[in-house]
Every structure is written in C-alpha cells, then in structure tokens.
Design goal:
The complex is a heterodimer of chains A (about 325) and B (about 350). In chain A, strands 1-3-2 form a three-stranded mixed β-sheet. With about 325 residues, chain A is mainly alpha-helical. In chain A, helix 2 crosses helix 3, helix 4 packs parallel to helix 6 and helix 13 runs antiparallel to helix 14. Chain A folds into three domains: about 100 residues, no CATH class; about 90 residues; about 100 residues. Chain A contains 14 helices and three strands. By secondary structure, chain B is mainly alpha-helical. Chain B has a domain of about 150 residues: Glycosyltransferase (Alpha/alpha barrel), CATH 1.50.10.20. Helices cover about 45% and strands about 0% of the residues of chain B. In chain B, a hairpin with a 4-residue loop joins strand 3 and strand 4. In chain B, helix 10 crosses helix 12 and helix 13 packs antiparallel against helix 14. Classes of the chains: A mainly alpha (about 325), B mainly alpha (about 350). Chain A: Belongs to the protein prenyltransferase subunit alpha family. Chain A: Keywords: Prenyltransferase, Repeat, Transferase. Chain A: GO terms for molecular function: protein prenyltransferase activity.
Chain lengths: ~325, ~350
C-alpha cells in the first residue's frame, strides 16, 4: 500500500495550466448518462492519438494518467479559488472540479464533503430524487472502476453510505440485492479482500434487510462468490456474518451445517490450501453444533487435507494451526 | 529511489550491512518532505498533510532527533489547520475531521505547545476546550462510538482517536467512557478480533484502535487475550513480516498495528521478533532514507514511522522507546500523563 507516485507520473505544477484538457475531462465525466461510465487510467505504455485527451467507446472511458494529472492541477486551483467563497452560480463549477479531484485522489475528504453539501442544497427541490440518483451513479462509477485505490477508498464508501442514508430519509427504495450484485461484488472483485466494500454490505443488510438475508436470496450469491474467490478472506468473513445464528433469526443450525458441508467437500476435492478457507471452516466448525454428526468432523477433514500436503510445510502449518484453534475454541452448543 | 538488493557485508554489529538501521538518511528523508512543493505528489497528499506531519515528527523523535523540524513553523502550521468549530483539517482550508484533529493534538504535545493552543485555539470555549468540545460532540451518546465528522460515519478508529486526543488534553470526562468501552466490547468477534463496528470483519488496524482505546480507558481486562493473541500471532508470515488479515501480503505498517496490539495484551513474545526486525530493516532505503511497505517498493512517511515504531517495540537499541497505546515517544506520554 505504498502511497508514493512513480517518477513517470511526477509533473511539476509550474507547467502552464491545461485548461482545455480540464474542460474536456469535465465534459465527459460530469454529463449524465444512461449507462454508467467504466473508467480506466492509461499509463505511458498505452499512448493515445496525439491531440486526444481521452478515448471513449460507448461507455468505456480511458484517460491517460498524464492528462488527468494536468486536469487535476486545474481542478485544484478552481477548488482553492471558489471553495468557502462560492456564489450560487459557481456551485456547479465547483462540483465539476471535485469530480476531477476525486478521480485523481479518492481520499480528498473536503471534495467529497462539498458534494454532500451540494446534495443537501437541493433537498427541498423537486429534482432531489434525480440529484441523488445522479450522485449515486457518480460514486458507484468510481467504486467499480478498474482503479486500484478507488475500489477500496474509505472516503468514497463513506460518501456512498451517506447517500444511501439520504435515499432512506427521502423514503426512496433501497434495492439491497441490486446494490450487492452491481456495486459491492464488482468492487470486491476488482480489489481483493476489500474491507470497506464488505463493511458497506454489512451496513446495508443491518439497516435494510437484517431479517431478509435468506428471503432476498443473498446467501447462495455470497457462497458462490466465495467458492470462486477462495483466497478472499473478506468474502468468507461476510459469509460467516450471514450465518451468524444469534444475529440472524432466519438461519438455523442445519442451514449452517449445510453450507459448511458443501464448502468442506469442495475444499477437500480441490485440495485447497487457502488460509481464508480453513479459517472460515474452523470458525464454523467451532461455533456450530453437530458438524461431527454431519459425518464430516473437522478433525477428520484436517487429517485428510494434511495427507494432500505432505511436502508443503506452509500449508501444513495453516492446517495444524486451524486444528489447534478449533480444539481450543469449540463450543458445545445445545441444539 | 534505490532500495536494498544483493548480499551484504558483515558490519560492526555482526549483521550484514543492509540489515542495520540507518539513522541520518531517514532524518534527511523526513526533513525533505515539506520542501517539495513544486512536485505533484505534495498536492496529491494534501488530504493527509497534518497526519503526515504527525508521522514524520514521531519518526524523528524515535530516531532521537526531536528537533529536526522547525518548531515554530510546525506549531503555526498545525494551528492554521484549525476550523472555527475547533476541529482540525488535514491542511489549511480543509474540512475538520477527528483523525486530523487527533494528529494535531499529538503534534502539539510532542513539541510541547499546548500553551499556544490555549492562547490561539478556536472553537467553543477556545484553547483546549475548543478542541475537546469538538471531539466530545462527535460521540454517539446512545451507542458510545464516535463519528469522524459532522457527516456521521462511525468507526472504531474514530473512537480511539477521540479518546486519544481527549486523554492528552486531560478532558476525558467530557465523554461517556464507560459507554465507549461497552461499545468496543460489542465489537469483539468470535475469532477474538475486532472490526469497524459490531459484527464487522476482524482487522489488525481496527484491533489496534479498539485495544488502544481500552488501554486509555484502563479496561484491557475485557479482552480475551489468549484468543486475540493467537489471531494476531497468525499474522506473521514465513518471511517474518506481518499481515493484517488471513492470506494477505505482509506490510511494514502491520509491524505496528499487530505488534503494538500484542504488546498491549502482553503477548509480543508470541511472534518471532528477530525475524520481524530483519523484515522491517530490509524495507529501508539506506541511501535516500525512508521505509517502504515491503522490500523493493517505494518509501513513504507512513511506512517509515510504523516501521520504526515496530522496531522500537521490539527493543531496537538505536531507537527511543515508543508508547504502544499512543504511538508517540514513551518519555513524552509519561511527562503528559504522569
């Protein structure tokens, strides 16, 4: 997680301000669209035709990083000039500047906060619903882009949470499953072990669907995702969250055992060494009754798995560690 | 920036040359950070400027060079980040937030300038009260946790930074500490760890925040130290470094979040300290200074301070002692908190 910039992209702010580049990028970023943009930044290895600021094909947008950097310099200057002394007519300009700033630097808190103020400014207006949905599209575009920092940005996820809260306050519907499949899972895919994406999902479920995990059909989607991303500890952690019996009244012991059995069988068949998988399995095995009775005791599973990794010290360590943890933490739960 | 590579020669300490802690290069690296205002990166990191100053200053203290940054300039800069509401933003003109507010207090304590805050501070009541009132207003009085700012995001990191700042100002009685402790207890997961809120994924950084907050509240007794100690000790990978969660890559900053957590619960000996030391030292740039997240990557001040703090916890003889709860020099914490 090094925050430093590579030398190729370093640009001196003494260069003349490329206002045209800024205007063009603002025009493409800030125009409302039916289909959200899919944004990518291009490095030096992918030059685009000279004279062009970006490549746009349908909703696929590719911007050379060097151009974005130049636009950022302009955006930042506009922001400094207008912020805290902003007249009504210039609010839109300031908001456009924040779009460019956040594309370059997703952690810019003040830029994101300004966008929140802008939303609130329209709260009593007729267009509030439209304003909200445009802003949600904006932040979702950045959260699902092929941009390493944006998909896990605490600032952007926090902004999204605030927006969804505004939806709720305005009594608009929140489609939890839709948010999950179209935004959270994409961000989770783009950035492995995406703590903030999965935290956001927990919040969505807690706030809007805490007794409906089963009803909404979320569990099979989560389980399927985990099986396709077995090295992703956050995915498995979220699966555990869905199976947390004390907090999820819909779920019964048998439901948990079923999931456990399926995943354990796959782990053994595919000879998975992933620590994420075994941490998940040991936690379920230790916290739920009757996994022994299901014919798949954790102890036996570990023994079977160890045989597949006779020459792999690292995996043996993972497995033995899991066994030890299970033994120390297993609960006797009355069924 | 060149980093470590190749076999080293044995140095006077018996270690190969690249496995010794350099001092002057790190000092020079930190001193140079504010002088690059014509570089893009300076403006790209504006959103964490004050935090960066705290990281740099703490690192200098640990390196035994507490006066390496100009004191009055530091104080003036910190005070210029304060908003009218008493909170501090990351840079002048930036919105106030609890994270940068905590950094501001920590910096002022380290340069012994709380009196200047008393004279020139903004917010309700001015001085220490101005900042303290800003922090106190961010506590959720129903649940005990803290929001980061007026926009309401709650996170155990904010709970920690809230108590950190208030305790350094001796104004903890402005908030409900017992309720905060109860909130942290509700965040304890089955695996022994803690996350951002109840039921969240266990994460080393969040674990540090929860433990440090409990430490400030003198309530570490509520922690299942064996369970948590085991989870934390599993963060050490074969090469010696520490990661933050299962199956993630090792990263120098976890040398702090994990090691300080283990220290607070008395289980630092559950990891291999010498292997970790070697890992951190390999992450240095011994010529140009600074420490990176892992060997071969570019250095930055964030990883520099946490690498050094980790080494200090492990008892490195060339470093000042660090306080595991505050990530500040132990000597200073003892002076302030007695």
């Amino acid at each position: 997680m090094s925050r430093a910039l590579d030398p190729e992209t370093s640009v001196s702010v003494q260069d003349s301000l490329p206002v045209e580049i800024y205007d063009q990028i603002v025009a493409v970023l800030c125009t409302p669209r039916d289909l959200p943009l899919e944004i990518e930044l291009l490095g030096k290895a992918h030059p685009i035709p000279s004279g062009e600021t970006y490549l746009l094909e349908e909703n696929y947008l590719a911007i050379p990083k060097a151009k974005l950097v130049q636009a950022f310099v302009v955006a930042r200057q506009i922001f400094s000039k207008l912020f805290r002394k902003c007249s009504e007519e210039k609010r839109g300009q300031l908001r456009d500047a924040t779009a460019v700033m956040l594309l370059m630097d997703p952690e810019h808190l003040t830029a994101a906060n300004f966008r929140k103020s802008y939303i609130l400014y329209h709260e009593k207006g007729e267009r509030f619903g439209e304003v909200l949905s445009r802003e949600l599209q904006f932040v979702d575009t950045y959260l699902t882009a092929r941009l390493h920092r944006h998909t896990k940005s605490p600032n952007l996820w926090s902004h999204r949470r605030w927006l969804v809260q505004q939806y709720r306050r305005a009594k608009f519907e929140v489609d939890v499953k839709g948010h999950f499949e179209k935004i959270v899972l994409i961000a989770a895919e783009r950035h492995p072990s995406n703590y903030y994406a999965w935290s956001h999902m927990r919040w969505l479920v807690d706030k809007f669907a805490s007794t409906q995990v089963f009803k909404l059909g979320l569990l099979p989607v989560v389980q399927d995702w985990c099986l396709r991303h077995p090295s992703d500890t956050s995915g498995f952690s979220f699966l555990l969250y869905c199976l947390d019996i004390p907090r999820k009244p819909e779920i019964g012991n048998q439901d948990v055992v079923e999931v456990y059995k399926e995943i354990l069988n796959i782990a053994l068949s595919f000879k998975w060494a992933h620590e994420s998988v075994w941490v998940f399995l040991r936690t379920v095995a230790a916290s739920v009754a009757d996994t022994d009775g299901s014919g798949l005791s954790f102890e036996e599973a570990i023994d079977t798995a160890l045989q597949a990794f006779v020459h792999d010290k690292k995996t043996q360590l993972t497995l033995n560690s899991s066994m030890k943890w299970y033994t120390e933490n297993r609960q006797t739960v009355s069924s | 920036m060149s980093l470590v590579s190749g076999p080293g020669r044995a140095g006077t300490t018996g270690l190969p040359e690249e496995l010794r802690l350099v001092i002057e290069p790190h000092v020079k690296y930190i001193q140079s950070l504010d002088s690059r205002r014509d570089e893009l990166e300076y403006w790209l990191t504006e959103h964490l400027r004050l935090n960066g100053l705290y990281w740099g200053l703490t690192a200098l203290h640990l390196l035994g060079r507490p006066d390496a940054l100009p004191r009055q300039e530091t104080i003036d800069f910190v005070l210029s980040c304060q908003s009218d509401n008493g909170g501090f933003g990351a840079a002048p003109g930036h919105d106030a937030h609890l994270l940068s507010t905590c950094s501001a207090i920590q910096i002022l304590v380290m340069v012994n300038a709380i009196d200047e805050l008393e004279k020139k501070g903004k917010g309700e009541g001015g001085g220490k009260m101005g900042v303290a009132n800003y922090i106190a207003a961010l506590q959720n009085r129903d649940t005990g946790t803290f929001a980061g700012d007026e926009w309401g995001e709650e996170d155990t990191r904010f709970l920690y930074t809230g108590l950190n700042g208030l305790s350094l100002l001796h104004l903890m009685d402005l908030v409900d500490v017992d309720l905060a402790v109860q909130y942290i207890m509700s965040c304890a997961n089955f695996d022994g760890g803690y996350g951002v809120s109840p039921g969240a994924e266990s994460h080393s950084g969040q674990i540090f925040a929860c433990l440090a907050a409990l430490s400030i509240a003198k309530r570490l007794d509520v922690v299942n130290v064996d369970k948590l100690g085991r989870w934390l000790s599993e963060r050490q990978v074969e090469a010696g470094g520490l990661n933050g969660r299962p199956e993630k890559l090792e990263d120098v900053c976890y040398s702090w979040w994990v090691a300080s957590s283990l220290t607070m619960i008395g289980k630092l000996h559950w990891i291999d300290g010498s292997k970790l030391t070697q890992f951190i030292l390999k992450c240095q740039d011994p010529e140009n200074g600074g420490i990176a997240d892992r060997p071969g990557d570019m250095v930055d001040v964030f990883h520099t301070v946490f690498g050094l703090a980790g080494l200090s916890l492990l008892g490195h003889p060339d470093l000042e002692e660090v306080d595991a709860t505050y990530c500040m020099p132990k000597r200073i914490i003892e002076r302030v908190l007695g």
